[in-house]
Amino acid sequence: MKIMVIGGGGREHALIKAIKKNPEATEIFALPGNGGIAADATCVPIGAKDLDAICDFAKANAIDFAVVAPDDPLALGAVDRLHALGIPCFGPDARAAEIESSKVFAKNLMKKYGIPTAAYEVFTDAEAALAYLETAEMPIVIKADGLALGKGVIIAETREEAREAIASIMCEKKFGESGSRVVVEEFLTGPEVSVLSFTDGETVVPMVSSMDHKRALDGDKGLNTGGMGTVAPNPYYTEEVAKRCMEEIFLPTIRAMKEEGRPFKGCLYFGLMVTEKGPKVIEYNCRFGDPETQVVLPLLKSDLLTVMMAVEEGRLAEIPVEFSEDSACCLVLASGGYPGSYEKGKAITFAENEALSASTVYHAGTKLAEDGGLVTSGGRVLGVTATAPTLKEAVEKAYEAAKGISFEGVYHRNDIGSRALKALAE
Ligand code: AMP
Ligand code: GLY
């Protein structure tokens, strides 16, 4: 089978490594892929948003199955276009992808179907939003409606900060047109849990839970990033929470999307907060998370390609999807300065140590230099994933492995997994 994976980050590297385990996957193309993915697939220099070029490539190369991983091409309708060419895909069509690409759509869906989430108001007019803020309780959360690279969410501690957020999103259009509408919502507290799930529109199969670490610095300080590390499973996702999530959130969401005539097929990511009143949805993503995928897939015992094909064919209920009882930790190595500006083109060296040989290094922002060596080409450069029977061992192993990798300006958080380990000890 000829497989095509759209995207070029650590998540796509993890997807490709997992797909590759199936001997049927004789050829894998990554569009565009990256320097490290080049060791596992044929990289093709076509951008993930260039749908015309993607479709031409798929036709010309008789692709048998396509995996569309990032949010942008999904929202733009990559799956709709590939389906029109008769190419089976893993991923939602554009109408189903709106569950991520429009926060207003997602919030209204949850309200209509009674799915627990933060109370909210939608505004299309800055004056009305500002008037509302005068009497609202602080802190408050302000979200741009559309995709904003995970940066369109502002938590305002004071009324002044909230006013500034409205001004920057709605008036200065800091996140472009995605800020024409805003959601202003209640500030919730509690531990966050990420649950990725496979769904074919009827059946939903949650994967092992995980915990992201979004802030740049230790102790959840510093700016928000795409994610500086993950662990799985997430200790706050107890059996009781999992049961409530299935009954109150996962199944109702799948049924709601079907009811709305937008059946969701692919990976639906539930960003949850376990509040005192039970689990609530913070956000939906219409795709695998990054770097959640880098801890979830290494724990998947079943064959990924088989599951993905069952999702596309609506046969998910018929196949087993099993996860290991082990734990995993992914530590992100980033370029100095990220998520702000940073330099690229730094040579990456690997000094094999025992832990590194036993770990998996997923490439996010790397490229091959002319001399064949690897250099940095992005903010998040590598994700080092270790698995072990306990979370403590997995975390230690990932940190040990990372000691073998260096490039100028490299930085990582020193506390990935520490909150989870503390919760386990309680
Ligand atoms: P999102 O981009 O929707 O994932 O939001 C980014 C982060 O903002 C989340 O991971 C939460 O930590 C935080 N957040 C979003 N919505 C809320 C809320 N209603 N209450 C508290 N924190 C929130
Ligand atoms: N790590 C969060 C996300 O993929 O959206």
Can you walk through the features of this model?
- The strands form 7 sheets. Strands 3-2-1-4-5 form a 5-stranded parallel β-sheet, with helices on both faces. A 5-stranded antiparallel β-sheet has the order 12-15-18-23-20. A 4-stranded antiparallel β-sheet has the order 6-9-7-8, sandwiched between helices.
- The chain has 14 helices and 24 strands.
- The longest helix is centred in the middle third of the chain and has 21 residues, at 239-259.
- α5 (94-101) packs across α6 (103-113) and α7 runs antiparallel to α8.
- The protein has helices at 10-19, 51-60, 71-76, 78-84, 94-101, 103-113, 126-133, 159-171, 239-259, 293-296, 304-312, 354-357, 391-402, 418-425; strands spanning 2-7, 27-32, 42-43, 65-68, 89-90, 120-123, 140-144, 153-156, 182-186, 192-199, 204-206, 211-212, 215-217, 221-224, 229-232, 266-275, 278-285, 327-334, 349-350, 360-363, 366-368, 374-376, 380-388, 405-406.
- The model has no long low-confidence stretch (mean pLDDT 96).
- By secondary structure, the protein is α+β, with helices and mostly antiparallel strands.
- Helices cover 31% and strands 26% of the residues.
- The radius of gyration is 21 Å and the shape is globular.
- It binds adenosine monophosphate (AMP) and glycine.
Q: In total, how many beta strands? A: 24
How large, in whole angstroms, is the Cα Rg?
21 Å
Strand fraction: 25-35%
Low-confidence stretches: none
Chain-averaged pLDDT? 96
Q: Characterize the overall form.
A: globular
Global structural class: alpha+beta
Ions and ligands: adenosine monophosphate, glycine
Gap from first CA to last CA: 48 Å
- Percent of residues in helical segments? 25-40%
Strand order of the largest sheet: 3-2-1-4-5
The biggest sheet amounts to: 5 strands, parallel
Number of helices: 14
